[in-house]
Each structure stands twice: as C-alpha cells, then as structure tokens.
Amino acid sequence: MNASGLSPDQVKLQARARELAGGPVAKRAAEVDRTEQYPWDNVDLLKDAKLIGMTIPTQYGGQGKGWLDAVLAIEALSAACAVTGRIAVETNMGAISAVMAYGSEEQKKLAADMVLSGDKPAICITEPEAGSDANGMTTRADKKGNRYVVNGRKHWITGGGVSRLHLIFAKVFDEKGNEEGIGGFLAIRDETVGLKITKREPTMGLRGIPEAVIDFEDMELPPSALVMPPRGLKKGFADLMTAYNSQRVGAATVALGIAEGAYQLALDWSEERHQFGRPINEFQGLQWKLADMSIKLRAAQALVYDAARSGEGGFPDMLLAAQAKIFTSENAIQVVNDALQFFGARGYSRELPLERMARDVRMFTIGGGTAEVLRNVVAGALLKKKLPQTRDGWGKV
Ligand SMILES: Cc1cc2nc3c(=O)[nH]c(=O)nc-3n(C[C@H](O)[C@H](O)[C@H](O)COP(=O)(O)OP(=O)(O)OC[C@H]3O[C@@H](n4cnc5c(N)ncnc54)[C@H](O)[C@@H]3O)c2cc1C
Fold first, then answer.
1. DSSP strand E in the chain: where?
2. Residue 130 per-residue DSSP state
3. For burial by CB atoms within 10 Å, which of 255, 316, 365, 375 has the most?
4. pLDDT digits (tens, 9 = 90+) for 187-203
C-alpha cells in the first residue's frame, strides 16, 4: 500500500523500514513466535536504523519526528513481524510520549536515555478488576512523609520482565488519606524494591513480548517519581487518556501492517498457485476478495495516517484515533482471515506466516481499548457528552 502526501524524507524513512522488515526482521519472525523470546537483536537493528525514540525531541537525543513518521516505520515492520512493530510503537509512543509531554527535565532525560539505549517502557494501567473501567483502579500510592508507598496489582502489562522503565498509574492519597485522583509514577525494575513480576500470561499471539502480572508490595517511590500528578480527581486521568491516543494510533498501525503483509502474500500466491489449469487469481471469487481486501486496507491506512497527522505538536485527536483503531483492527482481522483462505490447506500450516498473523492480529480489537469501549468514545465525541458509563472519567483507552 502506498498513500500520497508523504514528504521525500518520509518516503525515504518508509523505504529504510521496509528494507529492514523484508530482510532480517522477516527472517526471524517465525522463530520469535516459536521461542517466545523477546527479540533483543531486533531492538539493536531498530536502534541502528534510528527507528526507536524517533518522536523524542532532539534536545533529549531523539529526532523530534512526528507521529506519522513513527507510523510509517511501525507499519512496515509489522508487515513482517508484529512483535517488532509493537516494540517500535512502545519506543516512540505510549509511555515515552507521556513522559515527554508531562515529565520534568530530569524525568525526560532519564526516560529518553533509557529508550534510546533500547529499553521498551511498560505502561501499567489495567488491573484484574479494572479493565475497560480503568478509572476503577485500586492500586494506591499513599504519601508518607517524603515518599509514596504503592500497593496493588496490574496485569496484561506488555513487556513485564523485559522492560526496565515502568509508567505506573495509581490512585494517589495525601498524608491524611484523602484521594487526590489518578497519578502516573516512573519506576525502574530491579532498582525499585517492591516491584515484582509475578506471572507471564500464555498468550494466543504476539508471543515474543511477555504480557505480565506485576505486583507492587510497599513499593517506595520519591515524590520526584511522580510524572503525571493527579491535578484534582479527574485531570490526571484525563492526561493519561490524552497521552494514550498516540498508543492507540500505534496499535492500529500494527494491525494495519500485519494485514498488509498478509494481503501481499495472498496476492503473490494467487498468481503462483494454479488449479483447473490456470492461476487461481483468474477466478472471479478470489478477484473480488482481493478487491475488497485492498479497499479495506486503503481506507484503514487513510484513517490511521489522518489520526497520526492530527497529533502534530501534541497528541492525536481522540475521535480520529478511536475511529482509526476500531476500523483498522476489525478490518485487519478480516483481511488476514481472507488472505489465509487463499492458501487452502497451506494457510492452516504453521510453516507459513498466515496462522501467526491470524493469531497476532486478533489482539487489536482488545488491547489499547476494546472496540466496544472505543465506540463509546466515538459516540461520546459525536454527541459531545460523556455517556453514562464514562461520566466519572473516560473508559479505558
Ligand atoms: C496483548 C495485550 C496487551 C496489553 N497490554 C497492556 C499494557 O501494556 N498495559 C495495560 O495497562 N493494559 C494492557 N492490556 C490490557 C487491555 O488494555 C485490556 O485488556 C482492555 O482495556 C480490556 O480490559 P479487560 O480485558 O479487563 O476487559 P473488560 O473490561 O472486562 O471487558 C470485557 C468485555 O466487555 C466489554 N465492555 C466493557 N465495558 C463496556 C462498555 N462500557 N460498553 C460496552 N462494552 C463494554 C469489552 O469491550 C469486552 O468485550 C493489554 C491487553 C492485551 C490483550
């Protein structure tokens, strides 16, 4: 897929990312899935190709690039290996972008240095009893003298066990036990007593990145760890949701990339495979399938690029990011499923990447805000009001 409106630099960046994706990244993708090992060697490749920390401002050692630049890299990488695409998301968007927007000088320097040296930060929001309703989190940070004491449990934390930098959201309480709202804290694994990785989830796909349960047991943090202060009962949470719009665009991009990769495989195979004495792409049933797949991808790409562009100088627009993520994640699942069908029995074999892609792409209507909850976000924005389930704070993004 290629969309118009890219600058010459963006076209070059896209070509660089595609070259990397089509070469070493594609070669390792099946092994990363099979071994379920985090691909540290791909992290080095991304670092060398300057595809991580791209959105970090230049004064902190980054390239000061926009969301669309990151999207172009993520899209290309995800077509070959969704795990590597996700690493590019989380080293350009999500936690790192929240720290860059809300952090102190010291926090920004710390986070930028860690990401640029190859650390993929973890963002810790979801809890066993607070998923879509993130505002219902019970992890708490109690101010005690000159420190915060954090207790609680997060789960489904991407990178738990490999990430060092953690952005942890908790309800903040003052010395007297009064709730101040949700705040975000920075903590470094292995340097913070009380931060424990307690379980790795056995996931359906995206197996090269661990999804973990993280427990905080009397984890002590200095006030300087507070990146996103609660700012009253609602505002800290609103800041979190605003920053998360970049992560949502990133998630949509990975789904788009996976589907584009699957589409290309189906297109090539449809020429190669002969049945009834002719290439299977001479059958109208498959021609129309290819046409529909290409339309879905083109529309998804336009939504994703548009959402990315909306974030220039800030974060992507909430409505555009939600629309892009819903449409792309749902259609990407269909496109990958259709692509698999082109291969007949071979599509069902683990020797081809289609079955991995089908497992990987299934995640994106769930993580980063479910398609249902994001529809609430879209409807709420269209109606210009908070819907009943979100009146006390936006639902999980
Ligand atoms: C691979 C993966 C990686 C993830 N990574 C992270 C991470 O790094 N950090 C993090 O904090 N979290 C992460 N998550 C968690 C993810 O954000 C949550 O799974 C998601 O927000 C949904 O929460 P839940 O799983 O508890 O589902 P629930 O909230 O229990 O939802 C169950 C069902 O009810 C529906 N539902 C809920 N509320 C409504 C409503 N108001 N209207 C209509 N339908 C509704 C949902 O759409 C869903 O279909 C990850 C999840 C996955 C699968």
1. 122-124, 140-143, 148-158, 165-173, 179-188, 195-200, 211-221, 226-228, 274-275, 278-279
2. B
3. 255
4. 999 999 999 999 999 99
Question: pLDDT for 9-53, tens place per residue?
Answer: 999 999 999 999 999 999 999 999 999 999 999 999 999 999 999
Residue 228's pLDDT is: 84
Tell me, what's the pLDDT at 396?
Answer: 45
Give the residue whose CA is nearest to atom 6 of ligand 1: 157
Whether residue 324 contacts residue 292, with contact meaning beta carbons closer than 8 Å, is answered with no
| Token pair listed for 155 | 């789960």
Quick one: which atom of ligand 1 is closest to the CA of 376?
42
Contacts with 86 (C-beta within 8 Å, 6 or more apart), sequence order: 78, 158, 206, 209, 254
pLDDT for 165: 98
Ligand 1 centroid to residue 111 C-alpha, Å: 26
- Residue 90 token pair: 């989380």
pLDDT at site 186: 97
Whether 305 and 321 have beta carbons less than 8 Å apart is answered as: no
Ligand 1 atom having least distance to the Cα of 94: 8
Q: Give the number of C-alpha atoms closer than 13 A to the C-alpha of residue 282, restricted to the C-beta side.
A: 8
Q: Provide the total of helices (H) and of strands (E) in the chain, helices listed first.
A: 12, 10
DSSP H helices, 343-370, are 354-361
Low-confidence ranges of the chain (pLDDT < 50): 393-397
Q: What DSSP string describes 17-69?
A: HHHHIIIIIHHHHHHHHHHT---HHHHHHHHHTT-SSTTS-GGGTS----HHH
Give φ, ψ of 143 to 5 degrees: -75, 125
Question: Which residues sit with their C-beta closer than 6 Å to ligand 1?
Answer: 123-126, 131-132, 156-158, 203, 206, 211, 363, 366-370, 372-373, 376, 389, 395-396
